[in-house]
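Step 1: inspect the first sequence and its tokens.
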Amino acid sequence: MDKIGSQANDALTSPAAQRNREPIAEVLRQVLPETGRVLEIASGSGEHALHFAAGFPTLEWLPSDASPEARRSIAAWRRTAGLGNLAEPLALDVTSDWPVEAPLAAIVCINMLHISPWSASEALFAGAGRTLGEGAPLIVYGPFRKQGQHTAASNARFDADLRARDASWGIRDLEAVDALAETAGLVREADYSMPANNACLVWRRRAC
């Protein structure tokens, strides 16, 4: 992410967020409920939160990030937009306590699983199992391996680059992620193919 505007402006911009926000929004239109609180995990620059809050005005959008710099950026975008349904960013590390009240209407997590340790994936699904309402969706966007194989040569190169930067990072196997979901009481409902060899996956919390 690159800082934009003057040094006094904390807003950050991500070219990837600009490119993928509308394809992701199209999936969200199909799976999100009409009303309720949606927690966005690892909101980054805040551009997704801004776009989705504007596009889903009957939902309360709860952006979050573990990074203080990211939260300052989210807050800056929020001040600029003035959207009543976009909440102040939460300081949330998936591996720690989640400062949210259950039940949530949905959880959205974009481009986190492959740039974090596997423990973050485990914590995401465990937290979703604790906080999602019955039948509520967890929507995860990013690249995945399927049946032990990368879905494109570019993903294989990307995976190698990620692991060179941090050995705990890397593109995750969908079957391993599904196993985390099963343990947390979630069932995969859909797998949407997305641009640039990514996927948007939807799990729903089973009835207790």
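Step 2: inspect the second sequence and its tokens, then contrast the two.
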Amino acid sequence: MDKGYLKSITENNIATITFFHPQSNSLPGTLLYQLSDEITKAGNDNNVKVIVLKSDREGAFCAGASFDELIAIKDIETGKKFFSGFAMVINAIRKAPKFVIARIQGKAVGGGVGIASAADYTLAVNTASVKLSELAIGIGPFVVGPAVERKIGTSAFTALSINATEWQTAQWAQNKGLYANIYSSVNELDVAIDTLAAKLSKSNPEAMALLKRVFWKGTENWDTLLVERAEMSGKLVLSDFTINAINKFKAKA
């Protein structure tokens, strides 16, 4: 339980992939790589027509990178490998020939915003605020940046990146295009997701795959780009500034 878990269930041509970590659904490297593999597997499964991506329990959707794992990084290669986990998840979503629906039942930070942005269709509760907090700990949203900027535009991405300590509301996220819709309760959110997923499960899979290719046109270089961005974060996480900032955050937690 301390390391979290990942589970995947396919019913009625809908693959539901759920991740959980006791630290506000943060994502250590093991979970990131498992999540990437499971999305790829569902994308290649002929029995799957649509993928629903969610986190478990009440509270945060995803707190982003695991602070415990960040503080344990002692060399550039380890840092690059860790941040490449987020790159792999985003690229798995991008390359899966199925629509990925994200269920955002709570706040999203850093990598959580990246996952919400990479999904093809994202629905959330009206309390699901967002924050790109990377600059506050001495790094930057380098890996998730392309996905976030693609979804909400350069101006909103810039504002979210620079104002790294402030939450933006779910309404803001909807206005910027991150959330397709927001709901007043988790029950309403789940009904909306179930309804949409059921409709898509009966749609033409070839048409959906071709549409997804159209939606993601211009991102063909992301396999290389996101790994390059991971190396940037991998270097910065070794700095004294970042180490001290992370320790201060952990002390407040």
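Step 3: confirm your contrast with the notes below.
Residues 5-186 form a domain with the 2-enoyl-CoA Hydratase; Chain A, domain 1 fold (CATH 3.90.226.10). Residues 76-95 form the longest helix (20 residues).
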